[in-house]
Amino acid sequence: MSSSMGKRTSEATKVHAPSINMESVHMKIEEKITLTCGRDGGLQNMELHGMIMLRISDDKFGRIRLHVENEDKKGVQLQTHPNVDKKLFTAESLIGLKNPEKSFPVNSDVGVLKWRLQTTEESFIPLTINCWPSESGNGCDVNIEYELQEDNLELNDVVITIPLPSGVGAPVIGEIDGEYRHDSRRNTLEWCLPVIDAKNKSGSLEFSIAGQPNDFFPVQVSFISKKNYCNIQVLHFNRVHIWEE
């Protein structure tokens, strides 16, 4: 994810949908991004929160260690759960309990590692949005475009929501990549794109409607992604055996 969110106020949220298949050792990696950009460019703030959740359904796997691969280059701050051996994680990138004789709880979600990133670095923005309303003789012509900033990302169920003036009817759509929905009750135009990736990294929408340029802000963006933004993942896990004589 990268570079300026475009010329207008925008918000983006990315989540990892939970896996459907549950195994004896189930891990969920989730990240949420919230960011705000200025109407005329510039990232005002971007905050990311990530977590690895562990759920064990078979007590024979209670004493395990997770091998975490951290390829983050953006400078996230990592924090292990208080019961996790921090020295082990720092030295070997392994998540295990401080007391090796104890087990992780069974049938309970445990957050074992979390991370956080807060920045105003524009190159970190995942998706740029550029919205240009221009006054015409009977209202405004609005041109809006998106561009993916990192080719390795794949964004799904992208919805770009543009507010509309109330009581002026439906917008007249010109050119559009993707589809749109007009919500007359909420006075919004939703620009919907199933996938934005390296093969579909940019697109545009044009529409006309009565109103003033300020009527079309703030623009809001939401999406989900199966890939996490920070390159943090669990490679594998090992069972820890305690031998007693």
Describe it.
This protein is mainly β. It contains one helix and 15 strands; from the N terminus they run ββββαβββββββββββ. The chain has a four-stranded antiparallel sheet, with no helix packed on it. Strands 7-8-13-10 form a four-stranded antiparallel sheet, with no helix packed on it. The chain has a four-stranded antiparallel sheet with strand order 11-12-9-14, with no helix packed on it. The protein is elongated and about 75 Å long.
SS summary, helix count: 1
Helix content: under 10%
SS-based structural class?
Answer: mainly beta
**Which term fits the overall shape?**
elongated
Key phrases:
3% helix; 245 residues; mainly beta; disordered N terminus; 4-stranded antiparallel β-sheet
In brief:
By secondary structure, the chain is mostly beta strands.
Fold topology:
Blueprint: E1 25-37, E2 43-56, E3 64-70, E4 77-80, H1 86-92, E5 94-95, E6 110-119, E7 127-136, E8 139-148, E9 155-163, E10 172-176, E11 179-183, E12 188-196, E13 202-209, E14 220-224, E15 232-239
Antiparallel strand pairs: 1-2, 2-6, 3-5, 3-15, 4-6, 7-8, 8-13, 9-12, 9-14, 10-13, 11-12
